[in-house]
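New to this. Help decode the following:
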Amino acid sequence: MEKLIFRQAGTDDIDNLVQLRFEYVKADYGDIDAETESTLRAQLNEYFPAHLGKDIFSFLCFDGEKAVSMVILYIMDKPAFVTTPSGRTGTLLSVVTLPEYRRKGIAGKLVKMALEKAKQLGAEFVELQATADGAPLYKKIGFNDKESHYTPMIYKFERLE
C-alpha cells in the first residue's frame, strides 16, 4: 500500500466514480445482470459529468493510481421549512471502500471531507441511510438516528417498456 491520497473528484475521475458506484451496488445488492449493468453504466456516464461540481460532490481515496474508496455528497435546495430555513440539505450516497482497504479510517476521512464541503455550501444538515456495517462509523463521526413524526413512504412507477 502506497501513501494514500484523499481529494475531491473532478471530471477526470468519472471512470473511477462509475467503477466505485458499481462496487457499492455489488456490496449492497450482489451481482446484477448484464442488461441492468449496461443501463446503469450508461446513466452514470451521463449523470456524473452533468452534476459533478453542481449538486454532486464526490471525494476519493487513491492508493497510487487505484481509487479505493468514495463518498458522494448530494446537495439539494428545497423550499424553506422550520427545520431547514435555508432550504439547503445534503445527503451522503455510495460510501464505499474496497474490502482490502476497510477498517483503516479511509471512509471516515472521506465522510468528514464531505461534511466540511456541505457546511461550506450552507447545508442545514446532512443525512444518509446506513447499512448495519456502516452505522457504527457514522455514529462515531456524530450522526444520530433520524427521528421523525412522519412515516417514510415511497411510490414506485412501473418501468416503461
